[in-house]
Amino acid sequence: MNPGTKPTDDARSPHEEDGRWIETIRRTDNPDEKEFAYERLLRKHWQGVTVLALQRLGDLREAEDVAQESFERAFRSIERLKQPTAFLGWLLRIASNVATDRIRARKSLVSLDALGEAGSGVTDSAAGRRSPPADFERQIELDEEVAGVVAALDSLPEPYREVITLKYLKD
């Protein structure tokens, strides 16, 4: 199979396409084909997994870390997935579990990232004051935007929040 082509062109649903990529990973000895299939699954589902983690955690950087860890766990265990067409649900369950682990860990730890960010400004040697990094304002805007989306999602009842999240995970 050429790395630039789909496993088969007759996939009837996105879930079946996932199943075909997983079967490619399981059956091929060609490292290029295997890497291409992993990459397709990652690109297809990265945003959705990140949004799910962001909804649970409220922090984009941490959500991206959770997404990365979730894909690593899924890809290491892909041989144990009984129904390849159920990959997305399995992956989202892994992401949900990883996010839950992060929430539990938060309760007992102080974030070193937050402490580092508090002291990340550049010192103005003449006055001995700290000035914000160059992209500080843009980061604040992005954080506020993300916080607004998360707050809006959190204000919805659980069934609606889940429907909206899954709708955008699909897109």
Detailed description of the structure:
The chain is mainly alpha-helical. The protein is 70% helix and 4% strand. The chain is built from seven helices and two strands, in the order αααααββαα. The chain has helices at residues 14-27, 31-57, 60-76, 87-108, 112-118, 136-154, 158-170, and strands at 122-124, 129-131. The protein has a two-stranded antiparallel ribbon with strand order 1-2. Strand 1 and strand 2 (129-131) form a beta hairpin. Helix 1 (14-27) crosses helix 2, helix 2 runs antiparallel to helix 7 and helix 3 (60-76) packs across helix 4. The longest helix has 27 residues, at 31-57. The radius of gyration is 20 Å and the shape is elongated.
Write the layout of secondary structure elements.
Layout: H1 14-27, H2 31-57, H3 60-76, H4 87-108, H5 112-118, E1 122-124, E2 129-131, H6 136-154, H7 158-170
Antiparallel strand pairs: 1-2
Helix pairs in contact: 1-2, 2-3, 2-4, 2-7, 3-4
Distance between the termini: 27 Å
Mean pLDDT: 78
- Order of strands side by side in the largest beta sheet? 1-2
Number of strands: 2
By DSSP (H or I, 4+ residues per run), the number of helices equals 7
Provide the succession of SSEs.
HHHHHEEHH
Shape: elongated
Sheet-strand content, in percent, reads under 5%
